[in-house]
Design goal:
The protein is of the alpha/beta class. It has nine helices and ten strands.
């Protein structure tokens, strides 16, 4: 059976500088993969290139049998891809509930406002608070929640725990596990592999703009030396 998301020989450029050098990865429906690697090796660029934010690209991206390479960025979400950037990108002058109501519903299966508040109790408590008044963790939750409203099939998450307090990191981990139970397909970029191993089904190791290995989470102990080398530990 074909994977839900297939990426092969993906290359991309920032101007004249090549960032990706032939990325290959697959994600089955309902699977969570985590991309690990040092800063600057192309993890975020991979998500941005898959999403279509970086348009100078070559290779193949297939989502549920559809070739995504020619799809315009403004139509990417309607094909089922949702991206939560590290910088979050919420509307600071709108309150939580207004932020949640703003994104369009692109497909069946998106969460209702009530379901979002059940999943993120912190957001319910702050539903009338503007984005400028939210903590970093609450902003991250809101950024994720907005995408979950739309009905996308694949969630691209860039460093969701970066700079957050341990209690918030734990909460986000619980949310991702609940999303897995709902059958959400997740591509996660994360530096904290101890956090990621609670959630991921497979790890992809990245270095110099390429995937250098991938393996299921249960094989993690036998790959620790390679993982430490890739992460520069």
């Amino acid at each position: 059976m074909a994977a839900l998301l297939e990426v092969s020989d993906l290359k991309s450029w920032y101007g004249e500088s090549q960032a990706l050098h032939g990325v290959n990865l697959t994600v089955d429906e309902g699977e969570t993969i985590t991309i690990l690697g040092r800063n600057g090796v192309g993890k975020t660029t991979t998500l941005r290139t898959i999403m279509g934010i970086i348009r100078k690209r070559q290779g193949n991206i297939t989502l549920a049998g559809t070739n995504m390479m020619p799809v315009a960025l403004y139509r990417t979400a309607r094909h089922g891809l949702g991206f939560v950037p590290e910088e979050r990108g919420i509307f600071a002058t709108l309150n939580v509930e207004e932020n949640l109501k703003l994104p369009p519903i692109v497909a069946d299966g998106g969460m209702s406002i009530d379901e979002i508040f059940e999943l993120f109790p912190n957001l319910y408590e702050r539903r009338n608070s503007p984005g400028t008044k939210l903590s970093g963790g609450e902003q991250q939750m809101l950024s994720m929640a907005r995408i979950l409203r739309t009905g996308v099939r694949v969630l691209l998450l860039d460093e969701p725990t970066e700079g957050l307090a341990p209690v918030i990191v734990q909460r986000i981990g619980e949310v991702l596990l609940k999303l897995k139970e709902r059958g959400m397909t997740i591509v996660l970029v994360e530096q904290n592999f101890r956090f990621a191993k609670r959630i991921a089904d497979r790890f992809y190791l990245m270095d110099h703009g390429q995937m250098v290995n991938n393996f299921p989470v249960h094989e993690l102990p036998q790959h620790m030396d390679e993982l430490n080398k890739v992460l520069g530990v």
